[in-house]
Each structure stands twice: as structure tokens, then as C-alpha cells.
Request: fold
Amino acid sequence: MTTMQTPHWYRSLAPANIAVVGASNKTEKRGYQIVESLKIAQQMETFSGRILPIHPALDHILDVPVWPNLAMCPVVPDLAVLCTPANTVPQLIKECGELGIPMVVVLAAGFGESGIQGKVLEARALAQAEASSVRILGPNISGLFLNSGAIDLVGFPNILPGKTAVLSQSGNVALGLVCQSDQQQQFGFSHYFGIGNQLDLDFAELLTWLEQDEKTDSVVAYVEGFKRGSAFVQAARRFTLRKPLVAYKAGKSETSQQAAKSHTGSLAGNYRVSRDLLKQSGVTVVEDVNELLPIARTLAHQQVKVTGRTLIVTDGGGHGAIAADLANDFHLPLAQLADYEKSVLERKFPGLMGSNPIDVAGIADQDPSVFAELMAFLLMCDSVDQVIWVGLFGGYHLRFNQSLRPQELSAVEKITQLISKHKKPVLLQSLYSPRESDVLRMWCNSGLTHFTNIETAVRAARALIDRSLYLTNHQTGVVTNVVAMPRNRTHHSSLMAEQSARQKLIQEGVSIDSGFLIEQKADLEKSDRQFFADGQRWAMKINSPDILHKSDIGAVVLNIDNLAFAEEAFDQIMTNCQQHNANAKLEGVLMLPMSQAGVEYVIGCQRDENFGPMIMFGIGGLFVELFEDVHFRALPIDPLAAQQLIQSIQAKKLLHGFRHLPPMDIEAMVDLLCRVGQFFIHNPQVKSIDLNPVIAHQHGVNAVDVRIEVYEQESNHELSEVS
Reply:
């Protein structure tokens, strides 16, 4: 049995000797600041290694001996930080490789994000790194820190120790997290890695290292774009089975995508695709960077049952109403106390009603220790899986009287023990979170989080449920490999005629109508009885690889129920197509039976340059671009993943029928999604598939329009099946 060899660059993440190339005696320079930071770490005995400043014309910096070049260092550095201009980097990487330095940190900008010349320089640096077996972190980053700032190569002040690691493509975002931690005094860090342009080391490889790191129990990430999206998905799937990963994905708008591209040179990519694939990989995606740390800490320290039944406790009606509204917005299942639980509650706590929210306004003002008694009861209730607690707690002694402080402290001690005993989360939002409160400090010292606003607390409750569902659905721990992009293709593509596309799908087990191809109008009369004998209505459309938007040019006619109508429609379709494109190849018309009435959905497949093959599902027909209610998953997918994809749409009510619209035959839609996805994987020469609309009703699903786009190859134009 063979074991996987530890990557050589892991040595650089526990460095005994650190070279600072481009060290300086000017206090405003990074080459000075890093030496100073390491010198302070030596004095505080958090770093016991050697500092090796490199500069050809200096003798000492802060009493630390300076060496003229890397080769003159008395020991081989484990890590080199390059504080020099971009054009010096390729040669310095070569020198590092000759000495056996495993990893360099490149701070400089001026690479791929700066234009063509920067891309050339980037290519030179990467080629030199590959030739020298040197790994690059960066370029265009603020730096990194390791072991809660014991080795601080970025210069962030006031780094609180903790077990959350940060991966960020923005130094300012990372600094914002450090400032948030310093202000609230409840979030601490294990490590921080600037990601920058991801020239070499990227999110995926660093996440793999952090998965194994005992000092890290969660990771937060600020992501602008991926260079190897499919590798990240696989790394994230492995990581999230063990530890929570919370991410903010930039690039919702075109403006932010352009900003991201100019910042790091990384394409932000399709936000919807990235968001959906992150969630599919178990990543918790937040809408506000300020939610990263509180939600990561919550997920690392608390777990909830998959049912997630949530009870809201408040000491003010307004806050309870806000929490209830937000719970509805985020689809939290609200707990309903059983009748016997209500009667016990109302007997134990006169004046309280067993509703949800439970409002203790006025009852706790004189004695906040009542919360401990209330939580002791609620956490024992079988109908309650978690509690969101909003209001004044932690500040009763500040709001009313200092004499209430011992009661609040006592309540914290008892409630934290109850949480540990019952294994049920309590998410505390306090108006006094921004204030200095030893009550709240005691709360967070027990590993719990207090939230500054109600919305973040509710989002954390939703995140707990989503993580529980993810872990339950992936209990085996098996990570499905992401399918790689095919290499034997060109960028040129063409559309298959619809009849050929349908036949190809049917041959490989996809259950759709094949239709009848009518090449000449005379064929209609020969098939008159076959088409119209039983009153069946038909749709007629052009069959051509050169006509894309058939409805727009009058190349589709519906509800044909007799021969005369069919012949007239044939002539009109042909005339319209010839007028639209005189050179179009017209292969007759396709006759398909009209579908039952139902809801229009869309199924699509595409090959993303970053994430590989994926499948899309959502509201279809004319409303695809209007509502944009579509979601993506990486292929392959199984029936469970297909069901989750269907359930991910915002218009969930349509799935079960709405007014005159019938419910979906979900089993049939799941089967169609799985089979189309399997076809797409097995045929790497297919560039994209578009089934729009797919009409869903109680008795099945009907693919009304089918398009398959294929890559053109010099040697073989046929679809090839890969086992």
C-alpha cells in the first residue's frame, strides 16, 4: 500500500528561516516592515527562527545582519518573501530554485492584471518556477501570516489568535476581517493567505493544506475568480465534509466583474455558476463580507438536526417580528410547540404564551436569569431544534442596573452548559454586541457567537440547517470527481438539425419524442391518417442547422389539426426561412405532438472553462431571461442531486401546482436531468445542450425544443462516445 507524499512546499508553511529579498531600512517599505514584524516575533518568542534580510548595499536592518544575495545566506531559507519589482521576479525564482527554497511569496503587482506585458512577465515567472520546482504564492498580494500572526509577513495589527483561516484575493478585505475581529473581540485567526493572481498556488491547494491543519477549524474566503475551478470544487468537497467553509463571491454585476478582472487579472466568471457550484460543494455562500466570520464561527462550534425547527425568543415585540419576517425570507422551518409543551411553558412562566416568537418583554427586566430557566425548558422540547434569541441580553446591567450583571453572568454559565448537554444551537443577537460587555465576552469565550444584527443571526441559523443537510447527504465521504474538459476539440462549433439532435439523445436513453420529419409537402398527404385520424394536434417547425430562433421568424406553427392547415403551414414556414436566410440548409419540417398544458422549464448543459461540464435547470420558455430563476450543478449528477437542483429554484410553489397550473411529475424530471447529464458527459464533442421549454405536468415532461451544439473537428465530425 502506497501513501501520498507530502508536497515539498508544506515545509514553507512552518518556516525556521525566512529570507526577505528586497529588505529596506526605509520604514515605509514592505521590506522594512516585514523584518520589523519578524524581529518583534523573535522578541516575543513566537518565532524562534532566523531572519535573513537580502540587500546588496546594507549591513544591518534593526540590528539584523543583511546578506548581499540569497546564495550568501548562512542557511537555506525555508521561505523567501520577494519585496522587489515585478521585473526581478523570474530571476529571483531561479535563484531560489538553485538553493532548494520550496516557496516564494511575491508581493509585487504588475503581472497579468496590468496587461499584455504583465502576462508575458507572468509566463516567464511561472516557467522558471516549474523548471526550478519552486511554488509561488501571489503575485499581487499583501502577504500572509501563519500561526495566528506568530509569523506575520503582511503587517496586520492586532491579530487575535483563533482557529479560522482566511483565503482572500483582496488584502483590504482581509484587513477588514482583522479589524472586525479587533472591534468585536470574538473572532480569531489561525492563518491568512493572500491569493492574488493565483499564478501558481491557488485556493484549491491551500484549502487542501488547511483541511489537514489542526490549528484550523474553519475557513473564510473572499473570491473574485478561479483559475482552476474544477480543482477547487473537488478540494472544497473534501474540506467541507470535515470543516465549514464560508465564502463571499464577488462579481454579481458586470461592473464588479470588471473591477475584479482589473484587480487580480482573474476572470470573475459567471456569478450564478460559481455560486451554485460553491453551494453544491458544501460551501456556505454569504451576501455580505461582514457575515463571513460570525457564520464560520457558528458552523465550527454548533450543529443542528436536519429538520432545523427554529424557535425565536425575544424581549421586545419589534425584534421578534423582524426575526420572524427574516425567518420566513430564508425559509427557516419555525418550531411549533406541542400542546403539552405549551401547557407546561404557560404553567412554569405565567404571562408567557407558547407561540413563536416567544416574547418575554417585561418579565426579564428585573431578573434576566429567567432566560436560563426558559432555555432549560425549550432545549428539552422535542419540537425545538434550535433557538434564535434576539434583544437586550448582555446589556441588561448596562440598560437598567449594574446589580443585574451577576444574574446575566449566571445565565450565560447555565445556558452554555445546556447547549453542550442538548446539542442544540442557541444563536444570540444582542443590541449590546458593539459595546464592551463581560457578559457577552463570557458567552464568546465558551465558543459561541453573539451577533450584532438579527439578519446575520437568521442567516447563521439557515447556514446550520444547510450544512446539516449537506453532511447528511454525503455521509459516505465519497468525493465524486469533476469531469475534465475535453482536449480534442476546437473553438468552432455548429448546430445540429433538431431531428438529428433528438435521435441522438433517444439512442442514448433520453426519453423524448422523436417527431416525424416531413421533407416535402407531398409527404403530408401520404401521412394524413397517421397524423389527424384521432384528432391529435401537432406542432410544426423547421428542421435546419442554420435556423436558431425559429419562433422569431415564423418557423413554428402550433395546433395543426388537419391536412389543409398542415400544408399551408409547411409553405409558410419554408417561405419565412428562405426570406430570413437564403443560404440556410432546410431539411424539411419536424412534426411533434402538442404537449399537455403545464409549466415551462429549461434544461441546459455547457462546458465551463473553469468548472468543466455542468447542467442547468430553472424556469424556462420566454421567462428564462426575464426571471433568471436558473441554477447550475457540476456533472455528473445522481437522482438526489437532480432533486436538489429542482428544489433550488425560487418559484418552488410551481413544483406542486399553482392555481390552474398542474404539479410537476418530479420523478420524470429527475430522470430527464440525469439522462441528459449522462449523455453530455459521454459525448465530449457536444459543446452545449438546450432543452427549452420542457413542459412539465402531472403525467410526464415534454421537451418541446431541442438544440445540440457540437465542436467542429478536422478529423471527425461525428459524436464520439467515451466510456
